[in-house]
Fold this sequence. Notes:
The complex is a heterotrimer. By secondary structure, chain A is mainly alpha-helical. Chain A folds into two domains: about 15-135 and about 235-255, no CATH class; about 165-220, no CATH class. Helix content of chain A is about 65%, strand content about 5%. The longest helix of chain A has about 30 residues, at about 190-220. By secondary structure, chain B is an all-alpha fold. Chain B has seven helices and no strands. Chain B is globular and about 50 Å long. In chain C, helix 5 (about 115-125) crosses helix 6 (about 130-145) and helix 7 (about 160-175) runs parallel beside helix 8. In chain C, the strands form four sheets. In chain C, strands 6-7-8-3-9-10 form a six-stranded mixed β-sheet, with helices on both faces. Chain C is an alpha/beta fold. At the A-C interface, helix 7 and helix 8 of A face helix 1, helix 4, helix 5, helix 6 and helix 14 of C. The complex binds adenosine-5'-triphosphate (ATP) (2 copies) and magnesium ion (2 copies). One magnesium ion binds near residues 59, 60 and 183 of chain C. The site of one magnesium ion has 3 residues of chain C, from helix 2.
Amino acid sequence: MLPAPLAPTRPAFLTRTTPVARLVAGTAWLVAGIVTLDPIVPVRLSLAAIVALWLWSGLPLRRIPGRLAPLGFAMLSLTVFSILLSSANGDRSLATLAQIGPARITGPAISAGIAVGLRVVVIALTTLLVFGPSDPTRMADSLVQQWHVPDRFAYGTLAALRVAPFMAGDWTTIGAARRLRGLAPRGPVARVREAGGRLLVMLVSAIRRAERLALAMDARGFDSGVRRTHFREFRVGWRDWLTILVAVAVAAAAFFVPR
Amino acid sequence: MKALPASRPSTELFRWRTVDIVVVALLAVAFGVVFWAWGTYVWAWGSFLGPQTESLLTGVWLLPAVVCPLIVRRPGAALFGELVAAVVSALLGSYWGLDTLLSGLLQGAGAEVVFLITMYRAWNPVIAILAAAGAGIGEAIHDLIVSYPGLDYAGRAAIGAAEIVSAIAIVGIGGWFLVRALRRTGALQTFPSGG
Amino acid sequence: MTEAAVAGPLKIAAAPPSIEATDLGWTYAGRTRPAIEGLTFRLEPGRVLLVLGPSGSGKSTLARALAGLAPHVLPGRWQGSLRIGELEVAETPARLLGERIGLVFQDPDSQLVMTRVDDEIAFGLENRGWSRPEMVAGVPEALAQVGLSGFESRSTVTLSGGEKQRLAIADVLAARPGLLILDEPTANLDPPGMHAIFEQLAALARRREHTIVLIEHRLEAALPLADDVLLIDDEGRQLAFAPAGDVGRDAIGLLERSGAWVPRAWQGARRADERAGVSAVERAGEPAASSRSVESGALLLEAVDIRVEYPADESGKRVALDGVSVSLWAGERVALVGPNGAGKSSLLFALAGLLRPAAGTVRLRALPRDAEAAEPMRDPSRLKSNEIAARIGLVFADPELGFVAGTARDEVSASARAIGGRNGSGIDEPDDRGADGVLARFGLGHLATEIPFRLSQGEQRRLSLAALALRPPAVLLLDEPTFGLDRRGTQAVLTLLDDRRTAGQAQILATHDPRLLPACDRVVALDRGRVVFDGSPDAFLAAPPYEPAGPWRDGVAVRRTDAAGRGAP
Ligand SMILES: Nc1ncnc2c1ncn2[C@@H]1O[C@H](COP(=O)(O)OP(=O)(O)OP(=O)(O)O)[C@@H](O)[C@H]1O
Ligand SMILES: Nc1ncnc2c1ncn2[C@@H]1O[C@H](COP(=O)(O)OP(=O)(O)OP(=O)(O)O)[C@@H](O)[C@H]1O
Ligand SMILES: [Mg+2]
Ligand SMILES: [Mg+2]
């Protein structure tokens, strides 16, 4: 079950910013979120991200919790193991808070573990803020225009993204074909083997698709060596600078302001 | 009336043809979906067995770094494949979000270095395994800094070792057999690897 | 920047060029036989050339050569000379060719690049270095030319097949090429979609602003548009190059050799010179009418009031079929027709038990000979894989996705092995001689050890049928079995199906091609997920339940009248 794409439902401040500006802004939060083991930083950043999503992203808020739900799991396991295996537990000068079998748990270990778990939340929310407000096409346009990412690679990838959904249909069809040929697997070993065969056919079909698409792109001058122009131009404007400025300021505040 | 010499538009090593780009990108997108599913459905369960066990599952994230170059045999294929796959899994909503770009970069670079050392001339199972190990080292560097910063040294060493072992098994050996199976279907005929 | 300045955007349309081929040949790298060979013709500027030839004869290859993809993108060996206007293709950089030439392919889904319609059109213009104001003006203009004005902000994913293909034509027209090449632009479109494309082509041809090369099996639609015709044979060699007016009735023998569909109205002329040793089926331009009566067999498969839904993204479920009931009796062949997206493929999947309906039931009789027995009919989705394989076969629209084996021979024996080996019903393990016999019957004998994925499109389609031949199922479902096949290929498929039907097999054939209807016993027509007609082909063709009905009845016939009159240079 692939998650449905999350697209803005209304115009908002961030939908009018340049994708790469959001990328820079998001990176600031990401860095601030992962360089420290103090849980207060990710907590502050998460709150800021929620406010930004709510007020400026244009994304449908109702769908965000469902989208992030699978993260709970990773968060939990990262937290638990970071606590259990923390190097702080070996520090004899620290007080023992709990003793689970041979494992001794200290206060700093717990706070660091929580910080590591909360990072997941910061990262997920920030990613939504960066990619959510515009689609991949605009991201590619912006990467090419602002950062001079090689355009054949950017648009080649975009073309691949367009045909990729067909692969899901192929996967179903391949399975159906095998069932009707009497070759559906029975037992775990057969199941793994058949999944391998199915995967192979799907990859073959994907390569065929890519070849046809590439030929069509070349027929439209994609590899002609002419310098490409841009139908949709992105210019970095005041909104972008403001976004970056505010994001960096928030990151710094989250990091340096004492509790 | 004249017969031109058989044309070979594809022989320049550094000149990626459109078909090279699109094939790597499409495979990488597929891997990106696999990453997302693996992270959401497999790794998340595996992670409850502890970091070292969990690290044995990380090899899957390195598949593009070896499979893509083995197919198109062009410089940068490991990096490009890993980056695109990382972007896709981030777009789908993986736990690591933007951070996957960073790990993708390190993983791709790890494999790329190995292919670069061979000057993109050798494409045998040994190189595949070395490249996988390279990607695994890139992955380990990332994870030890970003995911497990609080761990003691023994714990970190075990995790690093587990990730490299996983890379060699899943990507070096598994990836090699995958490309061989693809070649046998005749699907790689337009690539240098298809011959 | 320097490059763009050199190339310069073309503000005015490139003048239509002439095409001059002299002993033109092309051999794909890795092949020993040339795909095309010795083509020699001259097409005057602004004329429309129709290229005819059997499947695999090299029509698409010629299109690729004209567009410069061979030799500039595809590896292989070039021979002879091909001049477009003053440019020698093999010696002109792809960039210069790309400014003058536009190529439209068969499958719209593999030629659209972007997700928004205006981005899609602009893609080709950006590649050619157009300036922004030129693109802003050019995009709506190109859309208007194919009747898609106002579609700028639509997503290309939500377009119908016909709209996608018109968009692909607009993509190419936007760059104002002097030479426009269309390679079977209507192959998987419903009749109205096809009709719309041919109307656009007729309008283009009338304007005479482009030299046009059209590859198309549908003679009745394409010939009225053509000024000249190029016929190619199986081996990729030129059979004839002549003005369109001289082909037609007088050259039926030639047309038949080229594998083209010959319009029914012309066949009188052909009958006059009956040749000995040619079967009636081969002589006729269209499949022989079915000779069977409907109620002879037993009920094999039925769907009662089924509803099929797909999970959709935002707006709830997408309903593909709603309240559909269909019955299938032993020994009958049913045509399943309907517009793109009507639900034909979904119905085949539901009947085969691959999609479980959200409401209603699908029931399947075990085997035709059990018809009289008291055995209850069963839900096919609950049968085990080997049980269902013995009863239902499905040939997919894309045969490649169904392949399970490494060689053509193993492909043929694979399911027979699975069925025979497991239900212990006393059927011998099929030996290789059995498989080879089947391959030979399907004209694939020489390919027994080939990898299925390496076969040509037509060969793959035949192999997918051959794979069901060793243990023919009681019910055969076929999704677009003649897609992209010429008359000869279609005829070959129908002949194979006839044998099975005589033995009691029931067949459903989902198709867009009205020419197949007379070869079926019954027509079931779908529209937006509902059955809108269930009756005889004659009744369907007399009054197709669609609006407008014309394209469904007559196929496609577009009149072209231009000031200069047809045939003028
Ligand atoms: N990319 C390719 N590499 C190698 N051989 C090819 C390639 N494309 C086509 N061929 C071969 O060249 C010959 C001519 O193929 P082509 O596609 O031009 O036929 P066609 O007349 O367009 O057929 P159809 O009506 O089925 O589209 C066939 O034998 C085919 O197998
Ligand atoms: N896997 C799927 N997921 C979601 N919607 C689907 C899926 N497959 C088909 N549909 C939708 O169901 C409807 C019926 O599609 P179906 O493929 O059965 O039509 P069809 O009659 O076979 O069309 P065509 O003539 O183009 O092959 C369409 O609206 C289609 O978009
Ligand atoms: Mg063709
Ligand atoms: Mg269909």
